[in-house]
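Input sequence (97 aa), recorded before submission:
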Amino acid sequence: MAQGLQVWDVNGNLTLDSNVQTTSIFGKIVVSSANEFNIQDNRFAWGTPFFLADSMLSGYDIKGVFDAQTNTYRIKVDDDKGGFGTKGNFTIYYGVF
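Predicted structure, token format:
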């Protein structure tokens, strides 16, 4: 029996069911320069870990590797050699879905 939030449309179709995977954002880091970041959070074990950066025009290249044994994301931010960005600050959000 379902115990989470469920929403149906006017035709009776289920449009939202929180008993199925939903996204949870655990935190954020603000980045102002090329660097490496380690984000360790035991809540990564709750689902599929992800990170999302609002860096499209920042001029940085971002790569992340997740280590399931330590529940740690290692995120590397490099200068993008051919980027169109202006090297501004941006935010990396992380969580699970």
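Checked by second reader. The longest strand covers residues 24-31.
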